[in-house]
Amino acid sequence: MLDVRDLKKSFAGFLAVSDVSFSLLPRSIMAIIGPNGAGKSTLFNLITGHIQPTSGRVFHKGTDITAAAPHRICRRGIGRSFQHTNIFPGLTVFECIQAAFIAHHRRGSDFWGRAERLYRPETEALLERLGLADKADLLAGALSHGNQKQIELGIALASDPDILLLDEPTAGMSATETRETIDLLRSIAEERGLTLLFTEHDMEVVFSIAERIGVLHQGRLIAQGKPDEIRADAEVRRVYLGGH
Ligand SMILES: Nc1ncnc2c1ncn2[C@@H]1O[C@H](COP(=O)(O)OP(=O)(O)OP(=O)(O)O)[C@@H](O)[C@H]1O
């Protein structure tokens, strides 16, 4: 589904990502973990075309997508949600998701169509699935942080991705919201046959949902493998996991 080969990004001589290689099988769930500044966001930005690599390649289903424009990569089926929520606070929850459907289907410039009539059933179904149906008419900006992250997940799902990149999907959530979000992600991924790649600082989240884990340290992927293998890896324990 995704093949990252020898990816490298240098910022004025500083190697933020260094020779990173890994592959994602269809329907797999992989976490990228590592301390602050390890290069996780840079790696995601390289995959989604938001920054250009110094060298290395990214393949999506066998096609080289290295350095393609972000909207093209999104349209190919690589969706993303960000660490800091990226919603329109002045729109209702319904309008946020509806706008994402409209944007994905490029209907925004449809002069004769009334935007508010478009994609209503799709929007309603997705809100229902996210557990946000009862909040559809509330302003997105007035919702809890956890609900706003769910809206963001909905915006990413509206583009019907086959891979979803999630940057700290449970950051800032309460324990209950975190548990609900993990359950939601797992079940939506299964239903839609999604491949998930996510970063996360909460090790409980990582070890409860990831089938594979990659550990970034100073830009290098120092280990990758199944959760048990990562837990037992001496170098990973030394640089990152500590007591986990
Ligand atoms: N545009 C940039 N110019 C220069 N240095 C950068 C740039 N973007 C990131 N870096 C540096 O690259 C390194 C990796 O940063 P990155 O944000 O990818 O780490 P991260 O693992 O996502 O951290 P966090 O967990 O805090 O989000 C850091 O040292 C950062 O200062």
TrEMBL record:
Keywords: ATP-binding, Nucleotide-binding, Transport. PANTHER family: AMINO ACID ABC TRANSPORTER ATP-BINDING PROTEIN (PTHR45772:SF7), CONSERVED COMPONENT OF ABC TRANSPORTER FOR NATURAL AMINO ACIDS-RELATED (PTHR45772). InterPro entries: AAA+_ATPase, ABC_AA/LPS_Transport, ABC_transporter-like_ATP-bd, BCA_ABC_TP_C, P-loop_NTPase. The keyword Magnesium does not apply. It comes from Stella humosa. GO terms for biological process: D-alanine transmembrane transport; L-alanine transport; L-isoleucine import across plasma membrane; L-valine import across plasma membrane. The lineage of its organism: Bacteria, Pseudomonadati, Pseudomonadota, Alphaproteobacteria, Rhodospirillales. One of its GO terms (molecular function) is L-isoleucine transmembrane transporter activity. Pfam families: ABC_tran (PF00005), BCA_ABC_TP_C (PF12399). Residues 2-243 form the ABC transporter domain. It comes from the Bacteria. This is Amino acid/amide ABC transporter ATP-binding protein 1 (HAAT family). GO terms for cellular component: plasma membrane.
